[in-house]
């Protein structure tokens, strides 16, 4: 997971540089721009998820969300953290459970990952369409 985080953190700025260079030097191929944007979003989502995975492994950002006592007055018995989808469960001595799923996971992981998939499909579609167009057709 550490290697994945390192590769993602290095790849994000590299993708940004490639996009800037592609946009400054025409002619630019729209399928290639879409593909590099997909890589950028995919690596961004991977970097954020890897960071969250490490924070959960090292104790997590979530323990402060758990109350010392449940609504019924039962004391906190234990914490249970999952790596996917990076969630935290507060387990109380009376058997009740309160789960916390960070909304930042939806914003910083799911949205870029979904956009990366959409851009990948768009890049493939545009590439195949451009291959089948006759020369000189815009």
Task: Walk me through what this model shows.
This protein is α+β, with helices and mostly antiparallel strands. The protein contains three helices and three strands. Strands 1-2-3 form a three-stranded antiparallel beta sheet, with no helix packed on it. A hairpin with a 4-residue loop joins strand 2 and strand 3. Helix 1 runs antiparallel to helix 2 and helix 2 runs antiparallel to helix 3. The longest helix has 30 residues. The termini are far apart. The relative contact order is 0.14. The mean pLDDT is 84.
Order of helices and strands: HHEEEH
Structural class: alpha+beta
Strand content: 5-15%
Gyration radius, to the nearest Å?
Answer: 22 Å
How would a textbook summarize the main sheet?
A: 3 strands, antiparallel
Q: Please tell me what the overall shape is.
A: elongated
Mean pLDDT: 84
Number of strands: 3
Number of helices: 3
